[in-house]
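Progress against Task 2.4 (sequence-to-structure conversion) is shown through the following example record, which the project officer requested during the mid-term review.
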Amino acid sequence: MGLFAKLEEFLYKKLIEEKVENVFALKEEITNYLFDTCKDFSLVDKYNVYKAFDSIWDMVSIDLKTIQEEGFGAARKTEDIKVYDKNNQEISDSIIKK
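Structure tokens generated for the chain above:
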């Protein structure tokens, strides 16, 4: 199994299969996994990998907290959005997942 497949499997297990109890502990666990994985690759700067991970973690953690509070059904909620042209005529009725 390749490196990215292992990472995908690890993240799927942690984020989907297991119930997230502590978002901060999960971030630390994922960070440790990334650092451990990077140590075998001398050309990979583990801090650049962490920087990329950290840059998206805020969005992920907000979603995880919402799922903790409202359940997985919150991930399936939709909102009707009406789009109007400059003459205030409705031109589309979109659905955006929250």
